[in-house]
Design a protein that fits this description.
24 strands; five-stranded antiparallel sheet; 26 helices; GAF domain-containing protein; alpha+beta; globular
């Protein structure tokens, strides 16, 4: 048997050129061009001396023995003119054994080194076995199965950078047929197998090992997709970051090397502490990340200059790219801290601020000892995974803030009533052991097999509103200054001209540093000038206008802030109102069945419920409990939306909220983290639920640019038709109460990274009707 990539497969493999020889036979008797007929006839006659080429063989040494003949036989499939461009070879079917390489493929393997062995990546034995079975269904049973398993080779180049190649396989010259020992499944059995792709034992029952024959050869073509694969790996690494249980991903630097095609690359990341205006390292990455440039930056300036720099970054966050350190300005080279670059052999680097809503979250650095490793094109590639970095940092930041807020709310020792009994049991064991002078280690508090309920009411377009209100504030400030300088005759012309320039820039061509430059202009020139006017004998009308102006200036920024303050106040009021309503309604929900409950506030309010027998083991728990709490949740979120419509008119700034519920049937485990004094989803498998939750906020309707959430409507996201039927019953109840309208939308949610098949219901709320 041939040396298959996986030992266990449903096939016996025979290397054969029969189907291609049949093509040559057709040319021999049917082609009108004499030279092609002669060419085909010559090859056929030569192969007759070696019947194994047609009949099939398993001895791979025959590939080397017949190497020249095989190369001539396959010449039409491997054109000489393309041999230095295409990455192509013939292959033993479903094997790692390849032959008849193009020149470019030979060069790639030569650069990889003589000890390198070509292998497929990330395919387990069982997964491979089912993949082989699906090929039988396609070829022999003519089932239309679209295989979605991508195949890749990972091959290092001569510089040691791991290159990734996607494989396409041409199987035109193979055939599949059963042996005498094969079982021929019925159509019903095939349907059943396709419904159970993960049941490997079931597939082996109907397709035992070596019970089928795979005969022929395949043609494999490779496409260099290093950037795409590295980008996918980067996104996976970012998603998998658990902010509460961080572990270093030592492959991250290697992934960056492949993505940027830089063999000698180091990476660093520092988080920005907004409160202390400082950069801080992630301790777990001390031995993985480097921070040479960031250390240079921090040590090169005094504290006041650094804080000013961080403030300016909120207005001008342009990355820094230095292709060649030797070409830096001589004044920079003379700084004492420049030695950090020299001592660490850094000759090219990028420093990239990570921003969200004009606020600094972190700073990344990429460094290399080789000059010209980084440039504007490399920086451009950052755009493809910036959103994923923001996702990870936001998740880390939000979870950190939630933990701190939860600790403060619980005053460190307060525990939710629904789970306090388990803490008491463990505390009692500790107390009894101490009475008996025995050692006792407190056990972890966890609850398993819980059903989660998640929902949020999100304030819509808060970032866009904040930007527009910033423009209003600054335009009002410029208008006020314009009035003042119009009254002042002397020295007013140059200031009026400067104000006109800023006004035009704000309303036509606003730049990243417009607000920053205006702020500096006001602080350094306008405000000192106006303060001086107040101290001199100035016209009373002018003095009054100047005093009125300074009343409106926010002293920390020297800018007008009234409109943006109204927005902040409005968001605070909305969050407080919605959170209070949710907390009040929770009292009734606990009466249905005790469960763990938590809620968080940001630009809106989100909540989590975890329900299960383990939380209240003395009570009767059935699926009806979950149904009742799901109906309570839908009814409550409707109530919150309707109440919001009544008080939103009194807000300083008009806002809208969009509400969503996520239905998840799989069971979840939660564990109390002693160090954080809070419950958290436990285990890598359960983290998938958390990932889905985080991505629903900005998700769109499939094949459209429309968000799945919509103000004035409730969106319910789920996976299966069973959930759809359940929630249609709940919606029908609320429609009868004239809470929801009869306009249900059945939607498909766009495919998210690693998440497919989500469905959604969306329905509008009626007007002027409260829930009873």
């Amino acid at each position: 048997m041939a040396n298959l990539y996986k030992k266990d497969a449903p096939f016996q493999v025979l290397i054969s050129f029969k189907k291609y020889l049949d093509v040559l036979e057709h040319i021999r008797y049917n082609d009108r061009l004499e030279y092609r007929v002669n060419y085909a006839e010559s090859l056929i006659e030569r192969t007759k001396k070696f019947p194994e080429l047609r009949d099939g063989f398993q001895d791979e040494s025959l590939l080397e023995k017949h190497e020249d003949l095989i190369r001539q036989l396959l010449a039409d499939l491997f054109p000489t003119g393309l041999t230095r461009n295409e990455i192509k070879a013939a292959s033993v079917p479903l094997s790692k054994t390849t032959f008849n390489y193009t020149e470019r493929f030979k060069g790639i393997l030569k650069d990889a080194g003589k000890d390198f062995e070509i292998e497929l990546r990330n395919i387990g034995d069982d997964e491979f076995y089912v993949f082989c079975c699906c090929l039988i269904l396609q070829s022999y049973f003519k089932r239309d199965i679209k295989s979605t398993m991508p195949l890749y080779y990972d091959i290092p180049n001569r510089l040691g950078i791991m290159k990734h190649y996607k494989i396409t396989v041409n199987s035109d010259f193979t055939e599949v047929y059963p042996t005498e020992d094969a079982k021929i499944p019925t159509d019903d059995v095939l349907d059943m197998l396709l419904e159970n792709l993960d049941d490997f034992k079931l597939w082996k029952k109907y397709f035992p090992p070596k019970s089928w024959v795979l005969k022929g050869f395949t043609i494999v073509s490779l496409v260099d997709c290093t950037s795409e694969v590295a980008l996918s790996d980067l996104k996976s690494s970012m998603i998998e970051i658990d902010p509460e249980d961080l572990s270093p991903d030592e492959n991250l630097v290697e992934i960056f090397k492949s993505y940027f095609d830089v063999p000698e690359l180091n990476f660093g990341l520092m988080l920005f502490d907004k409160k202390d205006q400082k950069l801080g390292r992630l301790p777990i990455y001390e031995n993985v990340f480097t921070h040479h440039v960031l250390d240079f930056w921090i040590n090169a300036f005094d504290e006041e200059t650094r804080k000013s720099t961080f403030t300016n970054l909120n207005h001008n966050s342009k990355p820094i790219v230095i292709s060649n350190v030797d070409k830096l300005d001589d004044n920079i080279k003379e700084l004492p801290s420049f030695s950090i670059l020299r001592n660490n052999n850094i000759n090219s680097f990028m420093v990239i601020p990570i921003m969200k809503d004009n606020e600094l979250l972190a700073i990344m650095e990429f460094t290399s000892p080789q000059a010209n490793s980084f440039n504007g094109l490399k920086l451009k590639k950052m755009e493809f995974f910036t959103d994923m970095i923001l996702f990870s940092l936001n998740r880390f930041s939000f979870e950190k803030n939630y933990q701190i807020e939860a600790i403060i709310q619980r005053e460190y020792t307060s525990i939710h009533d629904s789970v306090v009994w388990k803490f008491r049991n463990e505390a009692e064991k500790y107390f009894n052991a101490s009475l008996g002078k025995k050692m006792y280690t407190l056990k972890q508090i966890s609850f398993k097999n819980l059903t989660p309920l998640f929902g949020f009411s999100d304030i819509r377009s808060s970032s866009e509103k904040r930007f527009n209100l910033m423009l209003e504030d600054l335009n009002q400030q410029l208008e006020s200054l314009h009035d003042i300088f119009t009254l002042i005759n002397s020295d007013s012309e140059k200031y009026l001209l400067a104000l006109d320039v800023f006004e035009n820039e704000l309303n036509n061509e606003i730049k990243a540093d417009t607000e920053q430059r205006l702020q500096r202009f006001l602080r350094e020139e306008i405000h000192p000038y106006l303060q001086g006017k107040l101290e001199l004998k100035t016209d009373r009308e002018i003095k009054n206008k100047i005093k009125d102006y300074f009343v409106q200036v926010f002293t920390q920024t020297d800018l007008f802030y009234a409109n943006r303050k109204n927005l902040d106040d409005s968001i605070t009021l909305v969050n407080r109102k919605l959170a209070d309503m949710l907390d009040e309604s929770q009292v009734k929900a606990q009466q249905i069945f005790p469960h763990y409950y938590e809620r968080f506030k940001s630009d809106g309010v989100e909540h989590n419920l975890y329900i299960g027998h383990n939380i209240a083991p003395d009570l009767s728990y059935t699926s009806k409990v979950v149904h009742k709490l799901r109906y309570w949740q839908l009814k409550t979120i409707c109530n919150m939306e309707r109440e919001f419509q009544t008080f939103k008119k009194s807000l300083p700034i008009q806002l809208d909220i969009a509400s969503l519920l996520f239905v998840y049937n799989e069971k979840i485990d939660i564990r109390f983290r002693m160090d954080e004094k809070r419950f958290d989803v436990d285990g890598a498998y359960n983290s998938y639920y958390e990932i889905v939750k985080k991505r629903l906020d900005k998700a769109h309707v499939k094949d459209s640019s429309e968000r799945i959430t919509c103000p004035g409507k409730i969106t319910i996201v789920y996976f299966g038709m069973e959930n759809q039927k359940e929630y249609l019953e709940y919606i029908n109840k609320l429609q009868k109460k004239e809470i929801l309208q009869n306009d249900i939308e059945f939607l498909k949610v766009e495919d998210l990274q690693g998440i497919t098949g989500l469905l959604a219901l969306r329905v509008s709320l009626t007007q002027d009707q409260s829930i009873k």
